[in-house]
Amino acid sequence: MKVFNDLADFSVDEIGELLRLANYLESHPQPTALSGKVLALLFLSPSLRTLASFQAAMTRLGGGSIVISPDMSIHGLETRPGIVMDGVAAEHIREAVPVIASYADAIGIRAFGLRKNLADDLADKDFHAMTALTDTPYINMESACNHPCQSLADWKTLDEVHEGVADKKFVLSWSYHPKSLPLAVPAATLHMAAMRGMKVTVLRPDGFALPAPLMEKAQAAAKLSGGSVTETNNREDALQDASILYVKSWAATDDYGNASEDMNLRRELHDWRIDEDWFSNARSDCRLMHCLPVRRDVEICENVLDGPRSIVIPQARNRMLAQMAVLHEMLGKR
Amino acid sequence: MKVFNDLADFSVDEIGELLRLANYLESHPQPTALSGKVLALLFLSPSLRTLASFQAAMTRLGGGSIVISPDMSIHGLETRPGIVMDGVAAEHIREAVPVIASYADAIGIRAFGLRKNLADDLADKDFHAMTALTDTPYINMESACNHPCQSLADWKTLDEVHEGVADKKFVLSWSYHPKSLPLAVPAATLHMAAMRGMKVTVLRPDGFALPAPLMEKAQAAAKLSGGSVTETNNREDALQDASILYVKSWAATDDYGNASEDMNLRRELHDWRIDEDWFSNARSDCRLMHCLPVRRDVEICENVLDGPRSIVIPQARNRMLAQMAVLHEMLGKR
Amino acid sequence: MKVFNDLADFSVDEIGELLRLANYLESHPQPTALSGKVLALLFLSPSLRTLASFQAAMTRLGGGSIVISPDMSIHGLETRPGIVMDGVAAEHIREAVPVIASYADAIGIRAFGLRKNLADDLADKDFHAMTALTDTPYINMESACNHPCQSLADWKTLDEVHEGVADKKFVLSWSYHPKSLPLAVPAATLHMAAMRGMKVTVLRPDGFALPAPLMEKAQAAAKLSGGSVTETNNREDALQDASILYVKSWAATDDYGNASEDMNLRRELHDWRIDEDWFSNARSDCRLMHCLPVRRDVEICENVLDGPRSIVIPQARNRMLAQMAVLHEMLGKR
Asked: Rounded to two decimals, what is the model's pTM?
C-alpha cells in the first residue's frame, strides 16, 4: 500500500482484511514489526485523536514518528502557490513537504479545506498539491473532503455494536455548531455507510444539503452494496427505526464559502442539538457516534453523550487500531 | 501497580523496592522491557523535568510516549464540568482524557490546583475528576496537593547524600517568589521526609503555615517512622544542625486563594532569599535541595545554587530513574 | 566521539569515514543499534530540518529523542548570565541544560548568535557557555558561527553530484533576504568547501564581506587541501565556470549588529535574487545548493528552485543520513 487517501479506493474485501489485521494486532502485539521505521506527521490543521493515535500506533509496532506543525518553533509555513515570500513565513510547503517526507517511510498530512471554492475542496486540490511533491507513501489524515482513517475506524466500530450492519438504518445528522466546519467527515462517513449496504439517511436543515457529487458518489456505492442513500430535513422521518445516529456539523453548502450567509442560516438552528427526544422513534439499541471533538450541550446534550447510547470513546480508540493495520500494510516487511 | 498517585500509599519497604529497581535499571539497562508500550502524558500545567524525564524513561525501557498539552495545535481543552461549550474550546477533558488514555498503557496527568478552595485542592478534586474518567493505570505528574514522582526522586537523592537519613534534620523552607505557587511539592516533601523518620522542621513566614490536614498527615507518618514534624518562623532555630535545606515557595494559606492578600504578605518577604548565611549554624555537610525550576537570586542566591551544597541537578536526574522504576512496575511483563 | 561542534575538528579522512558510515547505514538499516539511547534536542532557535532529521535519525537507529524549546508549555527559559530572575522566565539555562543533558546520552543544542558583538559570535560564546554546563556528549545544531551537521551533509551532497570535487569551483553567494541572518551557515560552508580543496569564491555585496577571522581560517584550510579562497562583489567573475552555486543570506558585517545600518544596505540589494541569468557563464552542470528554509522569489526565483539545477531536497535529506553517522559514532556500542 503506497497511498491511503480514500476508503472508496478499497473493496469491501480489502477493508475486511485491514480490519482483521487490526484485530489481530490488538490481540497479538508486534512491538518490532516496524523497528527503525519513521512516520512523519504534518499537521496544517489542529488535531488531538489523529496526533495521539498515530504516535501510539507507531510505538506499538516498534517504529517512531516525527510531528511537524506550524505552531512549533519552526520557520512559519507558507502554503500559497507562486507567492513572493516577503512576509512572515520563511519556509514554503514546496520544500517542507518533500524534505519531511524524505526523512520518513510514510507521511501523514492533515490540511483542512479552505472552504472558498467547492470544486477545489471536492477535488482535494490543496491536499493533492502537497502529496504531488513527494514519492513517499502517504496517508490522508483529513483533507478538505476526506478522512479515510476516521471511516476505517467507524467501519470497525459498526461491526462491534451491531451484527448484520447491512440491514440497519444509518442516520448521518447535521448538528448545530458555532463554527462552519469542513465537509471531510460527513463526506467520508456517508460513503462508508453506503459501502456497507446500510439504509443511509442524511438529515440536515435546508441550506446544508451535502453537495451533489458527494451524494452521487455515495448513491453509486449504495447501488453496488445493496444499500440506499436518501436525504431529508425531517427529524422524525429520519430517525424512524434508526440503528445509528452519527452526528456531525458542517458548513452551509447552498452558497459554499459565504461565511456571513452561513452564519445567518446557522443562527436559527440552535435546536439542532441532539437530546434524548431525537431517539424517540429510533430502535431501542440505536447508538450515538461522533468523530470528536464535540461541543457538549451545543452539538449534543451532556446526558446523551454520557449515556448508554454513546460509543464515542470506543469509536475514537478504533482510530489507533485501524491505523495500526494501515501502517503495518504500508511499512511492514513483506 | 495500577496507580501512582501518592507516596503515602506505599510502605517504606515498597519504596525501598522501587528504588532498588531504579538503581538496578540504571546499572543494567533494559532497552526492550517496555517494547511496544505507550505512555500518554497530558500536561494541563507547564513542565520541563517531568516532560523530559518521562519521555527519556520510556525510551530507555524501549517504549514510547505521546505528549498532549493545550498549547499544541489541538482544539482547546475545556476543563470545567457541566459547561455549555459555546466558547473557544472545542474539546472537553471528559472526552480527551478517556480517549488519550485509551491509546496508552498508562497515562500521566499534570494539573495544578485552581487555588480557589482549599478543601478542593487538599482533596485533589480536579485531578481525580479526570482520573475517574478512565480505567487506564495512571501516574500523578503533579496535582493540586501531590507530586509523588518528585518525592520518590527526593527519597533516592537523600539516600545518596546522607547515610542514616533517619537521624538527620530536614528543613523544608519557604522562600520568596513573585508568584503564588501550588502546595503540591511542599505537601509531598513534608510527608516524604516524615515517612523517613527525619526530624522535620517547616520554616515559613506567618501567613504561610501549611494547612493543618497536611501537617497532621505528616505528623501521623512521623509517629510511625520515629521522626518528628514541627514548624517555625524562626530561621536560626530551624537551621540549627540541619542536614538538608529543602527550599520551595508556596501560596499564602491564611486566606487561601485570596490573591491580593497573598501579594500583600509576600511583598514584605524578599529577605526569604536563601544565601550562605542561612547555613551558619547548620551542619557543615548540609545540602541544598530544590525541585526546580528556581529563580536565581530571587529564591536562592546564585553562589549557593552554584556552590558545593547544591544537589539540585542530581536531584532532578533522579526523577528519570525513579520514574523508570514506576513505569517498569506498572507496564512491565510479570 | 564526545563532541560534534565543528567540522574543522576532523580530518578529511575522518570525515570520509563518517560518510562511509552514513552510506552504510542507509543501505544496511540498524534498527537496534541505539536501543534505549536518548538524544535530547534543545532548540533555543527555530528549526524544521534539524528537528525532524535528528528525530528520524534516532528512530532509524532504534533510540529516541526528547525535544525541548521555549515555545512549549515549559516555564520560560532565561539565558542571560547573572540575572536576578524576577521577570517572566521561571527557569534558567544554568539548570535547564544540565538537567536535560542528565536525562540523555547526548544533547544537541541550537542557539543562534545574538548578533551584537562580533568577537562573541565568532567565539560562539553563548553556545559554549551552555555546553560548559554539562559533561554529556554534545552536538552543535547551529550556533552563532557554526553548523557542522549542515556541512557534513553538504560534503556528502557534493560527492553525489560531482566527481573530482577538488577541481571544481564553488561559489558561496549572498542573496537578498528581508532579515539579517546569522553567519553560521556561510562560515561553516566556506570552511567545508575550502577543506575539500575546491576553488572557493565568496560573492557578496559591499558591506557584507565575511569577517576576516572566518576568511583566514578558510584560507588556512585551503592551503592544506590545495584549494583556494577568494572573494568578490562581481557576479560575472564569480560565476565563471562555477560548478556549485551555494546561496545563503547573512547579516551585514561592516558594522556588525547595527540593525538599522544593515537594513539601509540591504534595501538596495533586492537584485541579489538568484535567477537563471546568474548561471549564464557557469558550467552547464552547475548545481544550486541552499540549506533551507528559502524564501521563494525573494532569495531565489521559483523556476530556478524548481528547475534541474536545484539539489536542495537531496541536500536536506543528507542531513538525516550524516547525523545518523554522527549519532552512531557518539552513542553506539564499541
From this structure: 0.97
